[in-house]
Amino acid sequence: MPDLATAAPIVGAAFLASAVEVVEAFTIVLAVSVVRGPRPATLGTAAALALLALAVAVLGPLLAKVPIHGLQLTIGVLLTVFGLGWLRKAVLRAAGALPLHDEAAVFREQTSALQRQADAHDRAADWLAGVAAFKAVLLEGTEVVFIVLAVGARPGLLAPAALGAAAACAVVLAAGIAIRRPLSKIPENSLKFAVGALLTGFGVFWSAEGLGAPFPGGDWSILALVGLFLAAGAALASLARRRVARPA
After folding, report:
1. Rounded distance between C-alpha atoms, residue 196 and residue 230, angstroms
2. Which one in 30, 64, 94, 146 has a CA-CA gap of 20 to 30 Å to 234?
3. Which has the closest alpha carbon to 14: 234, 169, 204?
4. What is the average per-residue pLDDT within 173-184?
């Protein structure tokens, strides 16, 4: 059983990263529910979750057979690439070089698209709406599964990672169902900034462990790595903001 110092960063990283993905999936599922009712939204979501559960059931035992150092190195490299991608976009959005992700705008676009499909294909409208919900949940859910498997790569840490992801799903869904509107008030870019730093920090940490060169301080060094990437991202955002604001 991992101690609190080891489990807390895992739970936190899985929670924050999963929350971002669940918010994006919820926006599309809500649009489906508003346009065509709860039935296609529920069926599409349930089908995607069943497929994700099957994938986890198949992949889980296979991952357990992979040598731990090879698994940590592979996941560490993937996490680093994944995290740097999130951090890059968050930096550019914070600097104003890219537009902020707007859940309200996404909701309006999805609602309009679903309504056009319903008008053009009346008989198949419910099926098309269910497919839209299925695709959204499957895509974002795949990223959640990857995050859980990645941050819980060390033996004994998969349960805390899954707990963090499950808590994120529960919180986001409870908030979304309560207000019945897109969760546009959530500071998504700030979350993505933090998640990018978290995933990159974990990626560098796992990569070092996989190579047999662990950082001094053990798991506590993850906090130092995350802080380093946060500071670097903030500095880059400030520099990019000045360049964007500079007159041509």
Report:
1. 8
2. 146
3. 169
4. 72
Q: According to the model, what pLDDT value does residue 168 have? A: 86
- For residue 41, the surrounding DSSP H or E stretch is helix 38-64
Contact between 208 and 29 (Cβ < 8 Å): no
Per this entry, what is the length of the chain?
248
Tokens found for residue 23: 């918010």
184: phi then psi, degrees, rounded to nearest 5: -80, -15
Quote the pLDDT of residue 71.
76
What DSSP assignment string belongs to 82-115?
HHHHHHHHHHHHHHTSSPPP-HHHHHHHHHHHHH
The one-letter amino acid at 192: K
- How many CB atoms neighbour CB 131 within 10 A? 17
Q: Residue 3: phi, psi to the nearest 5? A: -80, 175
Quick one: 127 exposed, middle or buried, by C-beta within 10 A (0-12, 13-18, 19+)?
middle
What tens digit of pLDDT does each residue of 85-111 get?
A: 888 888 888 887 777 666 667 777 777
Q: Can you spell out the DSSP letters for 172-219?
A: HHHHHHHH-S--TTS-HHHHHHHHHHHHHHHHHHHHHHHTT-PPTTGG
SS3 for 37?
A: coil
